Protein backbone atom coordinates (compact mmCIF):
# COMPACT_ATOMS: atom_id res chain seq x y z
CA UNK A 1 0.00 0.00 0.00
CA UNK A 2 1.49 3.28 -1.18
CA UNK A 3 -0.49 6.35 -0.14
CA UNK A 4 0.46 9.40 -2.17
CA UNK A 5 -0.60 12.78 -0.83
CA UNK A 6 -0.42 15.78 -3.16
CA UNK A 7 -0.81 19.34 -1.90
CA UNK A 8 -1.84 21.29 -5.01
CA UNK A 9 -1.11 24.93 -5.69
CA UNK A 10 -0.99 27.09 -8.81
CA UNK A 11 1.50 25.63 -11.26
CA UNK A 12 3.20 23.44 -8.62
CA UNK A 13 2.39 20.59 -6.26
CA UNK A 14 4.10 19.00 -3.28
CA UNK A 15 4.12 15.18 -3.26
CA UNK A 16 4.66 12.80 -0.33
CA UNK A 17 4.48 8.98 -0.25
CA UNK A 18 3.93 6.92 2.89
CA UNK A 19 3.06 3.33 3.77
CA UNK A 20 1.19 1.85 6.78
CA UNK A 21 2.55 2.61 10.26
CA UNK A 22 3.93 5.93 9.06
CA UNK A 23 6.75 4.56 6.91
CA UNK A 24 7.85 7.44 4.65
CA UNK A 25 8.78 6.17 1.20
CA UNK A 26 9.43 9.60 -0.30
CA UNK A 27 9.99 12.80 1.63
CA UNK A 28 7.86 15.67 0.33
CA UNK A 29 9.17 17.03 -2.96
CA UNK A 30 7.89 19.61 -5.45
CA UNK A 31 6.55 18.85 -8.92
CA UNK A 32 5.84 21.61 -11.42
CA UNK A 33 2.85 21.26 -13.70
CA UNK A 34 4.95 20.88 -16.84
CA UNK A 35 4.87 17.99 -19.27
CA UNK A 36 8.36 16.80 -18.30
CA UNK A 37 7.82 16.95 -14.52
CA UNK A 38 4.48 15.17 -14.73
CA UNK A 39 5.97 12.38 -16.86
CA UNK A 40 8.75 11.94 -14.30
CA UNK A 41 6.18 11.76 -11.47
CA UNK A 42 4.18 9.10 -13.34
CA UNK A 43 7.36 7.09 -13.93
CA UNK A 44 8.33 7.35 -10.26
CA UNK A 45 4.91 6.24 -8.97
CA UNK A 46 4.91 3.25 -11.33
CA UNK A 47 8.21 2.04 -9.85
CA UNK A 48 6.61 1.66 -6.40
CA UNK A 49 5.82 -1.93 -5.49
CA UNK A 50 2.30 -2.75 -4.36
CA UNK A 51 -0.98 -0.90 -4.85
CA UNK A 52 -0.75 2.89 -5.16
CA UNK A 53 -3.48 5.43 -4.55
CA UNK A 54 -3.12 9.17 -5.00
CA UNK A 55 -5.20 11.72 -3.08
CA UNK A 56 -5.36 15.47 -3.63
CA UNK A 57 -7.71 18.29 -2.71
CA UNK A 58 -10.28 19.83 -5.02
CA UNK A 59 -8.77 23.30 -5.57
CA UNK A 60 -10.60 25.06 -8.37
CA UNK A 61 -8.91 24.07 -11.61
CA UNK A 62 -5.34 23.91 -10.27
CA UNK A 63 -5.53 20.17 -9.57
CA UNK A 64 -6.65 19.18 -13.07
CA UNK A 65 -3.26 19.05 -14.87
CA UNK A 66 -1.71 16.63 -12.39
CA UNK A 67 -4.93 14.67 -11.77
CA UNK A 68 -5.53 14.15 -15.50
CA UNK A 69 -1.90 13.16 -16.12
CA UNK A 70 -1.99 10.50 -13.39
CA UNK A 71 -5.47 9.25 -14.36
CA UNK A 72 -4.50 8.92 -18.04
CA UNK A 73 -1.43 6.92 -16.98
CA UNK A 74 -3.68 4.37 -15.24
CA UNK A 75 -2.88 5.45 -11.66
CA UNK A 76 -5.72 5.54 -9.11
CA UNK A 77 -6.53 9.17 -8.27
CA UNK A 78 -9.05 10.50 -5.77
CA UNK A 79 -9.94 14.19 -5.52
CA UNK A 80 -11.55 15.07 -2.18
CA UNK A 81 -13.22 18.11 -0.66
CA UNK A 82 -10.66 20.30 1.19
CA UNK A 83 -13.00 20.39 4.19
CA UNK A 84 -12.43 16.67 4.73
CA UNK A 85 -8.67 17.19 4.83
CA UNK A 86 -8.95 20.28 7.01
CA UNK A 87 -11.01 18.40 9.61
CA UNK A 88 -8.64 15.40 9.57
CA UNK A 89 -5.87 14.88 12.13
CA UNK A 90 -6.28 18.14 14.04
CA UNK A 91 -5.02 16.65 17.29
CA UNK A 92 -2.60 19.47 18.05
CA UNK A 93 -2.76 22.80 19.89
CA UNK A 94 -0.19 24.67 17.80
CA UNK A 95 -1.35 25.10 14.23
CA UNK A 96 1.41 24.34 11.74
CA UNK A 97 0.84 24.62 8.00
CA UNK A 98 3.34 24.17 5.18
CA UNK A 99 3.05 22.46 1.80
CA UNK A 100 5.22 19.57 3.01
CA UNK A 101 3.16 19.01 6.17
CA UNK A 102 -0.06 19.23 4.15
CA UNK A 103 1.21 16.64 1.66
CA UNK A 104 2.00 14.21 4.49
CA UNK A 105 -1.38 14.92 6.08
CA UNK A 106 -3.17 14.12 2.80
CA UNK A 107 -1.14 10.90 2.45
CA UNK A 108 -2.18 9.88 5.99
CA UNK A 109 -5.79 10.61 5.08
CA UNK A 110 -5.40 8.34 2.04
CA UNK A 111 -4.21 5.46 4.27
CA UNK A 112 -7.07 5.86 6.76
CA UNK A 113 -9.75 6.10 4.05
CA UNK A 114 -8.10 3.58 1.69
CA UNK A 115 -11.22 1.47 1.07
CA UNK A 116 -13.61 4.43 0.85
CA UNK A 117 -11.67 6.54 -1.65
CA UNK A 118 -13.64 7.37 -4.77
CA UNK A 119 -11.78 7.29 -8.05
CA UNK A 120 -11.54 10.54 -9.99
CA UNK A 121 -13.13 10.61 -13.42
CA UNK A 122 -12.35 13.65 -15.59
CA UNK A 123 -15.40 15.54 -16.81
CA UNK A 124 -15.99 15.70 -20.54
CA UNK A 125 -14.69 18.73 -22.42
CA UNK A 126 -18.25 19.88 -23.12
CA UNK A 127 -19.24 19.81 -19.45
CA UNK A 128 -16.06 21.59 -18.33
CA UNK A 129 -16.49 24.29 -20.99
CA UNK A 130 -20.16 24.71 -20.12
CA UNK A 131 -19.35 25.18 -16.44
CA UNK A 132 -16.67 27.79 -17.19
CA UNK A 133 -19.10 29.61 -19.48
CA UNK A 134 -21.79 29.60 -16.80
CA UNK A 135 -19.44 31.02 -14.15
CA UNK A 136 -18.36 33.79 -16.57
CA UNK A 137 -22.00 34.42 -17.50
CA UNK A 138 -22.90 34.93 -13.83
CA UNK A 139 -19.99 37.33 -13.29
CA UNK A 140 -20.87 39.29 -16.42
CA UNK A 141 -24.48 39.51 -15.25
CA UNK A 142 -23.28 41.11 -12.02
CA UNK A 143 -21.29 43.62 -14.06
CA UNK A 144 -24.40 44.31 -16.14
CA UNK A 145 -26.42 45.20 -13.04
CA UNK A 146 -23.74 47.64 -11.88
CA UNK A 147 -23.43 49.19 -15.34
CA UNK A 148 -27.20 49.61 -15.64
CA UNK A 149 -27.49 51.24 -12.23
CA UNK A 150 -24.64 53.62 -13.05
CA UNK A 151 -26.10 54.42 -16.47
CA UNK A 152 -29.57 55.12 -15.10
CA UNK A 153 -28.05 57.44 -12.46
CA UNK A 154 -26.31 59.37 -15.25
CA UNK A 155 -29.53 59.59 -17.25
CA UNK A 156 -31.37 61.04 -14.26
CA UNK A 157 -29.22 64.15 -14.75
CA UNK A 158 -29.73 64.36 -18.53
CA UNK A 159 -32.77 62.35 -19.59
CA UNK A 160 -34.82 61.39 -16.50
CA UNK A 161 -36.54 57.99 -16.65
CA UNK A 162 -35.40 57.33 -20.22
CA UNK A 163 -35.07 53.67 -19.22
CA UNK A 164 -38.87 53.54 -18.81
CA UNK A 165 -39.76 54.92 -22.25
CA UNK A 166 -40.01 51.44 -23.78
CA UNK A 167 -41.45 48.19 -22.44
CA UNK A 168 -39.89 46.03 -25.17
CA UNK A 169 -38.12 42.91 -23.88
CA UNK A 170 -34.48 42.18 -24.54
CA UNK A 171 -33.85 41.15 -28.14
CA UNK A 172 -32.74 37.51 -28.15
CA UNK A 173 -30.63 37.69 -31.30
CA UNK A 174 -28.08 40.21 -30.02
CA UNK A 175 -29.16 41.03 -26.45
CA UNK A 176 -29.94 44.69 -27.24
CA UNK A 177 -32.49 46.60 -25.16
CA UNK A 178 -34.46 49.28 -27.00
CA UNK A 179 -34.09 52.04 -24.41
CA UNK A 180 -30.28 51.69 -24.38
CA UNK A 181 -30.10 51.92 -28.18
CA UNK A 182 -32.45 54.92 -28.06
CA UNK A 183 -30.29 56.82 -25.57
CA UNK A 184 -27.23 56.11 -27.69
CA UNK A 185 -28.96 58.07 -30.49
CA UNK A 186 -30.69 60.65 -28.25
CA UNK A 187 -28.37 61.04 -25.21
CA UNK A 188 -29.98 64.17 -23.75
CA UNK A 189 -33.54 65.35 -23.25
CA UNK A 190 -32.76 68.43 -25.37
CA UNK A 191 -31.75 66.19 -28.28
CA UNK A 192 -35.48 65.41 -28.50
CA UNK A 193 -37.16 68.45 -26.97
CA UNK A 194 -35.41 71.05 -29.19
CA UNK A 195 -36.58 69.30 -32.35
CA UNK A 196 -39.96 69.93 -33.89
CA UNK A 197 -42.39 67.01 -33.71
CA UNK A 198 -42.10 66.29 -37.43
CA UNK A 199 -38.29 66.47 -37.31
CA UNK A 200 -38.17 64.08 -34.35
CA UNK A 201 -40.64 61.70 -36.00
CA UNK A 202 -38.45 61.58 -39.08
CA UNK A 203 -35.28 60.89 -37.04
CA UNK A 204 -37.05 58.38 -34.81
CA UNK A 205 -38.45 56.48 -37.79
CA UNK A 206 -35.03 56.40 -39.44
CA UNK A 207 -33.49 55.14 -36.18
CA UNK A 208 -36.11 52.38 -35.84
CA UNK A 209 -35.49 51.23 -39.41
CA UNK A 210 -31.70 51.20 -38.95
CA UNK A 211 -31.85 49.28 -35.65
CA UNK A 212 -34.63 46.89 -36.75
CA UNK A 213 -37.28 48.15 -34.34
CA UNK A 214 -40.96 48.61 -35.07
CA UNK A 215 -41.89 52.26 -35.62
CA UNK A 216 -44.98 53.70 -33.96
CA UNK A 217 -46.12 57.25 -34.69
CA UNK A 218 -48.06 57.47 -31.43
CA UNK A 219 -44.92 56.41 -29.53
CA UNK A 220 -42.93 59.15 -31.25
CA UNK A 221 -45.52 61.73 -30.19
CA UNK A 222 -45.48 60.38 -26.63
CA UNK A 223 -41.67 60.55 -26.36
CA UNK A 224 -41.53 64.06 -27.83
CA UNK A 225 -44.20 65.30 -25.45
CA UNK A 226 -42.47 63.62 -22.50
CA UNK A 227 -39.07 65.12 -23.37
CA UNK A 228 -40.51 68.64 -23.48
CA UNK A 229 -41.97 68.18 -19.99
CA UNK A 230 -38.66 67.13 -18.38
CA UNK A 231 -35.91 69.25 -16.79
CA UNK A 232 -32.26 68.20 -16.97
CA UNK A 233 -29.71 69.18 -14.34
CA UNK A 234 -26.81 68.97 -16.80
CA UNK A 235 -26.67 70.97 -20.06
CA UNK A 236 -26.30 69.27 -23.43
CA UNK A 237 -22.57 69.87 -23.84
CA UNK A 238 -20.14 67.72 -25.79
CA UNK A 239 -18.63 66.43 -22.53
CA UNK A 240 -22.01 65.32 -21.20
CA UNK A 241 -22.93 63.68 -24.51
CA UNK A 242 -19.58 61.85 -24.53
CA UNK A 243 -20.17 60.45 -21.01
CA UNK A 244 -23.66 59.18 -21.92
CA UNK A 245 -22.67 57.77 -25.30
CA UNK A 246 -19.60 55.93 -24.00
CA UNK A 247 -21.56 54.51 -21.05
CA UNK A 248 -24.27 53.33 -23.47
CA UNK A 249 -21.67 51.68 -25.71
CA UNK A 250 -20.14 49.88 -22.72
CA UNK A 251 -23.57 48.64 -21.62
CA UNK A 252 -24.41 47.47 -25.15
CA UNK A 253 -21.13 45.55 -25.40
CA UNK A 254 -21.98 43.72 -22.16
CA UNK A 255 -25.48 42.93 -23.42
CA UNK A 256 -24.03 41.55 -26.67
CA UNK A 257 -21.45 39.45 -24.79
CA UNK A 258 -24.17 37.95 -22.60
CA UNK A 259 -26.29 37.15 -25.65
CA UNK A 260 -23.35 35.32 -27.26
CA UNK A 261 -22.71 33.40 -24.03
CA UNK A 262 -26.37 32.37 -23.76
CA UNK A 263 -26.30 31.10 -27.33
CA UNK A 264 -23.03 29.20 -26.80
CA UNK A 265 -24.22 27.69 -23.50
CA UNK A 266 -27.40 26.42 -25.16
CA UNK A 267 -25.37 25.00 -28.06
CA UNK A 268 -23.08 23.09 -25.69
CA UNK A 269 -25.89 21.90 -23.41
CA UNK A 270 -27.89 20.60 -26.39
CA UNK A 271 -25.05 18.15 -27.14
CA UNK A 272 -25.49 16.39 -23.80
CA UNK A 273 -27.89 13.45 -23.36
CA UNK A 274 -29.98 15.01 -20.59
CA UNK A 275 -30.76 18.25 -22.48
CA UNK A 276 -34.25 17.33 -23.74
CA UNK A 277 -35.28 15.92 -20.36
CA UNK A 278 -34.17 19.03 -18.48
CA UNK A 279 -35.87 21.30 -21.03
CA UNK A 280 -39.07 19.34 -20.42
CA UNK A 281 -39.15 20.26 -16.72
CA UNK A 282 -41.54 23.10 -15.92
CA UNK A 283 -39.91 26.47 -15.26
CA UNK A 284 -36.70 25.59 -17.09
CA UNK A 285 -35.82 27.54 -20.23
CA UNK A 286 -32.66 27.52 -22.31
CA UNK A 287 -30.60 29.56 -19.85
CA UNK A 288 -31.74 27.71 -16.71
CA UNK A 289 -31.31 24.38 -18.51
CA UNK A 290 -27.69 25.16 -19.38
CA UNK A 291 -27.01 26.44 -15.86
CA UNK A 292 -28.50 23.38 -14.17
CA UNK A 293 -26.53 20.99 -16.38
CA UNK A 294 -23.35 23.03 -15.90
CA UNK A 295 -23.53 23.09 -12.10
CA UNK A 296 -24.97 19.61 -11.46
CA UNK A 297 -22.93 17.79 -14.07
CA UNK A 298 -23.49 14.11 -14.80
CA UNK A 299 -26.19 12.83 -12.42
CA UNK A 300 -24.93 9.28 -12.89
CA UNK A 301 -21.94 10.26 -10.74
CA UNK A 302 -24.36 10.84 -7.84
CA UNK A 303 -25.68 8.05 -5.62
CA UNK A 304 -29.16 9.42 -4.92
CA UNK A 305 -31.39 12.46 -4.85
CA UNK A 306 -29.99 13.23 -1.40
CA UNK A 307 -26.54 13.57 -2.92
CA UNK A 308 -27.87 16.12 -5.40
CA UNK A 309 -29.54 18.09 -2.60
CA UNK A 310 -26.25 18.07 -0.70
CA UNK A 311 -24.44 19.24 -3.85
CA UNK A 312 -26.68 22.30 -3.87
CA UNK A 313 -26.01 22.92 -0.18
CA UNK A 314 -29.69 23.07 0.77
CA UNK A 315 -29.62 20.04 3.06
CA UNK A 316 -30.15 20.73 6.80
CA UNK A 317 -27.52 18.56 8.57
CA UNK A 318 -28.40 16.98 11.96
CA UNK A 319 -27.49 19.11 14.98
CA UNK A 320 -28.43 17.08 18.05
CA UNK A 321 -26.61 17.12 21.38
CA UNK A 322 -27.96 15.53 24.54
CA UNK A 323 -31.54 16.65 25.08
CA UNK A 324 -31.11 19.48 22.59
CA UNK A 325 -32.64 18.36 19.29
CA UNK A 326 -33.98 21.44 17.46
CA UNK A 327 -36.72 20.88 14.89
CA UNK A 328 -35.60 23.85 12.82
CA UNK A 329 -32.11 23.63 11.30
CA UNK A 330 -30.18 25.81 8.91
CA UNK A 331 -29.08 24.56 5.51
CA UNK A 332 -25.44 23.60 5.13
CA UNK A 333 -24.56 26.01 2.28
CA UNK A 334 -21.62 23.70 1.54
CA UNK A 335 -22.61 23.20 -2.07
CA UNK A 336 -22.60 25.35 -5.17
CA UNK A 337 -23.89 28.91 -4.57
CA UNK A 338 -24.41 29.25 -8.33
CA UNK A 339 -26.74 26.24 -8.28
CA UNK A 340 -28.66 27.63 -5.31
CA UNK A 341 -29.17 30.92 -7.13
CA UNK A 342 -30.47 29.14 -10.23
CA UNK A 343 -32.86 27.09 -8.09
CA UNK A 344 -34.25 30.21 -6.40
CA UNK A 345 -34.79 31.82 -9.80
CA UNK A 346 -36.68 28.75 -11.01
CA UNK A 347 -38.79 28.74 -7.85
CA UNK A 348 -39.62 32.39 -8.55
CA UNK A 349 -40.97 31.30 -11.95
CA UNK A 350 -43.28 28.85 -10.15
CA UNK A 351 -44.52 31.62 -7.84
CA UNK A 352 -45.19 34.00 -10.73
CA UNK A 353 -46.82 31.46 -13.06
CA UNK A 354 -48.72 29.46 -10.38
CA UNK A 355 -48.97 26.17 -12.33
CA UNK A 356 -51.63 24.39 -10.28
CA UNK A 357 -50.91 20.95 -11.78
CA UNK A 358 -47.17 21.00 -11.07
CA UNK A 359 -46.12 18.95 -7.98
CA UNK A 360 -43.31 21.39 -7.11
CA UNK A 361 -45.73 24.34 -7.04
CA UNK A 362 -48.31 22.33 -5.11
CA UNK A 363 -45.69 21.55 -2.46
CA UNK A 364 -44.48 25.17 -2.40
CA UNK A 365 -48.03 26.50 -2.07
CA UNK A 366 -48.78 24.00 0.70
CA UNK A 367 -45.79 25.17 2.74
CA UNK A 368 -46.68 28.80 2.07
CA UNK A 369 -50.29 28.27 3.17
CA UNK A 370 -48.98 26.73 6.41
CA UNK A 371 -47.41 30.08 7.21
CA UNK A 372 -43.82 29.05 6.58
CA UNK A 373 -41.34 31.92 6.06
CA UNK A 374 -40.27 32.80 2.49
CA UNK A 375 -36.86 31.14 2.64
CA UNK A 376 -38.27 28.00 4.22
CA UNK A 377 -40.87 27.28 1.54
CA UNK A 378 -38.47 28.29 -1.25
CA UNK A 379 -35.79 25.88 0.01
CA UNK A 380 -38.37 23.13 0.56
CA UNK A 381 -39.63 23.55 -3.02
CA UNK A 382 -36.06 23.58 -4.39
CA UNK A 383 -35.42 20.37 -2.43
CA UNK A 384 -38.41 18.69 -4.10
CA UNK A 385 -37.42 20.09 -7.52
CA UNK A 386 -33.97 18.48 -7.26
CA UNK A 387 -35.40 15.10 -6.30
CA UNK A 388 -37.74 15.19 -9.31
CA UNK A 389 -34.83 16.35 -11.50
CA UNK A 390 -32.68 13.44 -10.34
CA UNK A 391 -35.42 10.84 -10.80
CA UNK A 392 -36.41 12.02 -14.28
CA UNK A 393 -32.85 12.21 -15.55
CA UNK A 394 -31.87 8.78 -14.19
CA UNK A 395 -34.96 7.28 -15.79
CA UNK A 396 -34.37 9.06 -19.12
CA UNK A 397 -30.70 8.08 -19.27
CA UNK A 398 -31.56 4.47 -18.41
CA UNK A 399 -34.16 4.45 -21.22
CA UNK A 400 -31.63 5.88 -23.70
CA UNK A 401 -29.12 3.14 -22.89
CA UNK A 402 -31.79 0.46 -23.20
Polypeptide structure, described:
With 402 residues, the protein is of the alpha/beta class. It folds into 3 domains: 2-122, 2-Layer Sandwich (Nucleotidyltransferase, domain 5); 127-269, Helix Hairpins (Orthogonal Bundle), CATH 1.10.287; 275-319 and 328-401, no CATH class. The protein is 56% helix and 9% strand. It is built from 16 helices and 5 strands. The chain has helices at residues 35-47, 64-72, 82-86, 99-112, 125-158, 178-185, 190-193, 197-210, 217-229, 238-269, 275-279, 286-296, 305-312, 337-353, 359-369, 374-401; strands spanning 2-9, 12-19, 23-32, 52-57, 76-80. The protein has a 5-stranded mixed sheet with strand order 3-2-1-4-5. Strand 2 and strand 3 (23-32) form a beta hairpin. Helix 6 (178-185) packs antiparallel against helix 10. It is elongated, with a radius of gyration of 28 Å. 27% of the residues are buried. The mean pLDDT is 89.
Secondary structure layout plus pairing:
Layout: E1 2-9, E2 12-19, E3 23-32, H1 35-47, E4 52-57, H2 64-72, E5 76-80, H3 82-86, H4 99-112, H5 125-158, H6 178-185, H7 190-193, H8 197-210, H9 217-229, H10 238-269, H11 275-279, H12 286-296, H13 305-312, H14 337-353, H15 359-369, H16 374-401
Parallel strand pairs: 1-4, 4-5
Antiparallel strand pairs: 1-2, 2-3
